[in-house]
From TrEMBL, chain A:
<dbReference type="GO" id="GO:0005886">
    <property type="term" value="C:plasma membrane"/>
</dbReference>
<dbReference type="GO" id="GO:0005315">
    <property type="term" value="F:phosphate transmembrane transporter activity"/>
</dbReference>
<feature type="transmembrane region" description="Helical">
    <location>
        <begin position="126"/>
        <end position="149"/>
    </location>
</feature>
<dbReference type="GO" id="GO:0035435">
    <property type="term" value="P:phosphate ion transmembrane transport"/>
</dbReference>
<feature type="transmembrane region" description="Helical">
    <location>
        <begin position="92"/>
        <end position="114"/>
    </location>
</feature>
<comment type="function">
    <text>Part of the binding-protein-dependent transport system for phosphate; probably responsible for the translocation of the substrate across the membrane.</text>
</comment>
<feature type="transmembrane region" description="Helical">
    <location>
        <begin position="204"/>
        <end position="225"/>
    </location>
</feature>
<dbReference type="InterPro" id="IPR000515">
    <property type="entry name" value="MetI-like"/>
</dbReference>
<dbReference type="InterPro" id="IPR035906">
    <property type="entry name" value="MetI-like_sf"/>
</dbReference>
TrEMBL record, chain B:
<dbReference type="InterPro" id="IPR051124">
    <property type="entry name" value="Phosphate_Transport_Permease"/>
</dbReference>
<dbReference type="InterPro" id="IPR035906">
    <property type="entry name" value="MetI-like_sf"/>
</dbReference>
<protein>
    <recommendedName>
        <fullName>Phosphate transport system permease protein</fullName>
    </recommendedName>
</protein>
<dbReference type="GO" id="GO:0005315">
    <property type="term" value="F:phosphate transmembrane transporter activity"/>
</dbReference>
<comment type="function">
    <text>Part of the binding-protein-dependent transport system for phosphate; probably responsible for the translocation of the substrate across the membrane.</text>
</comment>
<feature type="transmembrane region" description="Helical">
    <location>
        <begin position="178"/>
        <end position="200"/>
    </location>
</feature>
<dbReference type="InterPro" id="IPR000515">
    <property type="entry name" value="MetI-like"/>
</dbReference>
<keyword id="KW-0812">Transmembrane</keyword>
<dbReference type="GO" id="GO:0005886">
    <property type="term" value="C:plasma membrane"/>
</dbReference>
Amino acid sequence: MSTLAANKPAYDGQTLDLTGKSGGRAFRNTLASVLITLCFLIALIPLLWILWTVISKGYSLLFDAGWWSESQRGITVRREGGGAYHAVMGTLIMALITALIAVPIAILGAIYLVEYGRGTKAAKVVSFMIDILTGVPSIVAALFIYAVWITVFGFNRVGFAVSLSLVLLMLPVVLRSTEEMLKLVPDELREASYALGVPKWKTILKVVVPTAFGGIITGVMLGLARVMGETAPLLILVGYSKNINLNPFDGFMGALPTMINQDRTELALQPAADRVWAAALTLILLVLLLNVLARLVARFSAVKSK
Amino acid sequence: MSSTDVTAPPDRPDDTKKLDLGPVGHLGDRLFAGLARGSGGLVILIVAFVGIFLLALAIPALANNESSFLFSRIWEPGANPPQFGIAALFYTTVISSIIAMVIAVPIAVGVALFTTYYAPKRLAAPVAYAIDLLAAVPSIIYGLWGILFFAPILRPVIDGLSNALGWLPLFEKPPTDNVGVVFTASVVLAIMILPVVTAISREIFAQTPVAHREGALALGSTRWEMIRMAVLPYGRSGVVSASMLGLGRALGETVAVLIILSVPNGNDPWNSSIFAGGETFASKIANNAAEFDSPDKTGAYIAAGLVLFVVTFLVNSAARLIVARSGPGGKRTRKVRRVGDKPQTEGASL
């Protein structure tokens, strides 16, 4: 191409030009480049705009030590003060319980798909169901837990119920990423282990899973990031409490999304608006931090395959 | 040890005997395999239970329902006798999601092409990552930003569209200057599903066989012609299924829609225009969580949730089927990965 282009001056432009493109084609090519680049720029606008809005409106409260150590107890929408400690803790506790339930099931499920069920009909059914679970809207997951936890068993609306519904949302994320990672583990490693007389289950636990560990952690973090921002289950399954409640089995519990939801109707009042945006920034920071960490872990612990 | 020892001839031990790794390994294997199978089975059970429980709680309420569940627009589950139908919810849910898809898919395809074939190699990964970050923003923040900051700039678009196309019922001029309309929700939904559609399209575009692309270039194609003749046909089914997944996401989105859409007054006549307010399945359920006090009322909302579950189930299964059936991209992804080869990506991460 480049040598041909170098010859270009030899043509006078009037004679047959075999190296160039006809005007129409060149124009369409340029037009496509412009449009495609434009698509990217358009897609970037909302991201930058949202980040700018949340950061510029929410940053001031975050430098306040009280924001991280106090609750909203006794604080009304018209009063300044208080913090998001109760909501941050609530979000973390519910996410942690979710992870404790979802991660073992997800990892074992992925092990089933890759190590035991590979190619079988049953594995295909499981795989299909995971896809379906991935697509279940959070409100449906919440309604399902409502149906079981509250309508059938008659329990109260508590933080644990939220965790249960978040399990449905976190499970497929972690399972899929673990599955992808386990598939990347070279078969030579497994065979070497079998050849040494190590039983299959030990091979999986001591060779396969540790090799894929970085990827599994990445999946867990992405799963956590997904469930932390969910609001719908919180609206249905637990009430918002301004007080510090660290017990997921009793009473209402604060969480960052419901803290935003609480004051968002009073945005005309400055103290409420400040808190809404500060809570939004805290939530975004938590979620983005998990995302960035997940990427870093993924980059530095990728499965080395030939 | 085991019963097979008795039946197997002593001079010809079977293969399993030779590979017997001892009783501990044997037991461990069975336990571990059982655990793994159990987890797989649990996933099936969970999905089945979601359907069964929702159905079980919806049926009594549906039996008491005095209106046509599918075709009525009335929603008064608390009345005596209860009356509720999902026609209005269904309409708003579907129309908002479809508009979101119409807006998001072309842009997503553009972004995916940009990251795979246009962006400089060093830029491709950060660019892809930046778009992925859109998916990390919690939906409640989309909702707040959408109604407070984004909706006002849509005002001229709404006015323009309704002036030009107002003769269609779909684009009928709204009675008020309210910005919390279906159209606004759709545009915000489009932004929310953009990263999903982009990520999958990107992965499939990046896998277009090098031979196809170089063949097109060798025949003298421009970059755009190469994309049109080699990349797009190869990735078509992948893009279709990515769009379906995006559609599934949009159908079920709750909080952003809840914050943005203004709920019409009970006395107002129903309006089919996308420039009017409304409620989707998800926003209706979330908005009325406080009303779950009697079995009939709860059952009505659970019935609505069940319909949403079925609709998203169908849309998502269709997406997977398209990939499994006709998608060279979809099949190739799995195969390439299983062997442990590096997928033939060009600069794009994931």
